[in-house]
Design brief:
5-stranded parallel beta sheet, alpha/beta, 34% helix, 8 helices
């Protein structure tokens, strides 16, 4: 019976992504976005919002490392075997928002209002990163939010799927002489950085 309970409260699955979870949470700790329970006053407790949460394993890893944390998990798909099955027994607050990030209005989420928010994600594909940033900081120069963003920890990926219409820093790339057409080429060649062979990498390291 004891072993069954330990398995129930342990990580939902033995994930091959544990090293990435650890890297993200360690970076959050380094920049003061997460602290041990003894260091956090109740009034200073942030809400961790996991974008593109999937089954919620990054949130589960954070809870494993730091215990009683408040969580909101954003995911457009419905999943079976979600992390909540064990998280609900040991975390302060958890809510799952089943919605596409492009349609998400955090101002309308009661759990977020007047809170300090830490946004995090392990896998935000292409323009999903930009959409998540817009959800955090508002959509437009005069946008206002009813919450405070304490920090953001996103592991980006699939840069070839970024889009001009949703990219958050168009002003910067325009200042470099990059417009919509050039941006399309830029996203396509972004994958070149991952195509080098080990021999190429070793050769590059010699120069």
């Amino acid at each position: 019976e004891r072993r069954a309970r330990e398995e129930e409260l342990s990580a939902p699955t033995q994930s091959r992504h544990d090293a990435q979870f650890a890297g993200i949470v360690s970076a959050m700790r380094l920049y003061g976005l997460v602290r041990s329970g003894a260091d956090v006053r109740a009034s200073d407790k942030p809400l961790y919002v996991e974008f593109g949460a999937g089954r919620g394993y990054l949130s589960h890893f954070l809870s494993d490392a730091y215990g009683d944390v408040d969580l909101a998990l954003v995911e457009r798909r419905a999943y079976r075997h979600k992390a909540e099955r064990s998280l609900r027994r040991r975390t302060g607050f958890i809510e799952r928002l089943t919605i596409d990030i492009k349609d998400l209005n955090l101002n309308a989420v009661d759990a977020v209002a007047s809170r300090d928010v830490v946004a995090m994600a392990k896998h935000l594909c292409g323009e999903a990163t930009d959409l998540a940033l817009r959800a955090c900081f508002g959509r437009g120069p005069r946008a206002r939010t009813n919450f405070r963003v304490r920090g953001v920890a996103f592991a980006t990926c699939c840069h070839h799927r970024c889009a001009w219409n949703t990219y958050v820093n168009r002003e910067y790339v325009i200042s470099l002489g990059i417009g919509r057409d050039e941006f399309e080429y830029l996203t396509k060649i972004s994958s070149w950085a991952t195509l080098a062979t080990n021999a190429d990498a070793e050769t590059a390291g010699e120069h």
